[in-house]
Amino acid sequence: LSIPNIPPIDGIDLAVGYENVSLVTEEFENKSVLILGRGNAAFEVAQHIYDATNYIHMISRSRVRNAYATHYVGDLRAINNQLLDTYQLKSLDALVEIDLMEHEFLQNPVDGRIQIKYKISDTDINIQERQEAIAYDKVIRCLGFKFDDSIWHSDVKIEKNLGRTNKYPKIQFDYQSFDYDHLYFTGTLMHSIDFRKSSGGFIHGFRYLTQTLYRIFEYRYHKIKWSSMTFSWYSLTNYLIKRMNEADGIYQMFGQLVDVILIDRINRQCRFIDEYPARLLPRLEEITGYRSENLLLLNMQYGMNYSGAGRDVFAFDRVSASVDTADRSNFLHPVLYYYDSSLEEIDFENVKAGFLPLKSSTRIHHIIENVLTLWMEPTEHVLPLRV
So which domain of life are we looking at (predicted)? Predict the structure, then answer.
């Protein structure tokens, strides 16, 4: 349900799309190549043709965002970043930040080479001369995709998201269309909700969201309550340890899916609901069929200020070394939130993506980060949890 993103730029038809670019490296032998875009697709192409080319230039309006710094797998993966080395260490290639919408592509009628120029005629003469001095044998478009709305009847109007997420249809937190009841979106389109926040745009993420949607359907249309299990609250610690070490959904969809424990203080029992959408917590009873005023939530999260483009994620003091400073853990780690009243929509206002609301009565407990993502040490993980 996607089509290539082809911006309305004069001469953009001179570029070859990522979806059609040749994989035969001999075709790029001694060629000067311009790549439009700066995502994994752009760097994958650069990596593939690098050994054959004369040089590669890459342009985009945004800076490079390394996935190891942002903790978003849609950003540049280290396996594809060879071009950064040749740019910074050898000056063979280049990355430039410009707005493509202010430029146009022209082809030399003599040699067929392609130039990129400012549209504005009164541009500084020095800039014009530099642009005229650079020409490319090939231009490759790697500008991502957008939602293909041609599947709809002409009378159907589906609203799109705003800003950087306008390539996705606008959907509610239960994956339902804002415009039409009973119309749901699944697969990578679910990333409309957690774009640049978690892993919903990728198979290792949206497979869990798809399971979530199935469970939503079961209760909404068949009154089959959300899959759950009950146990004595004396078994709660053991089960929490098991989940934080084995749960895959809340690990892959960190900050978006949480484990929910409904606490029955009268009967001293707990009902466990796994991998529930955090933003649907205000509609817990409506979605699952279960209700409780006492909620314990297990969330996987990074440190508050650890992720981001340009962050030094390899700083010497990046690891929290003591249980007493577990709340300063930076790497992905389990966090427990306890609420003695149900959550409302207003509670999520101004809450940073990946985190849960902090109300006046909220209790929070961080399990200290672990390089092996194993939380089974008696003194570091289990005992503080029991206390």
Answer: Eukaryota
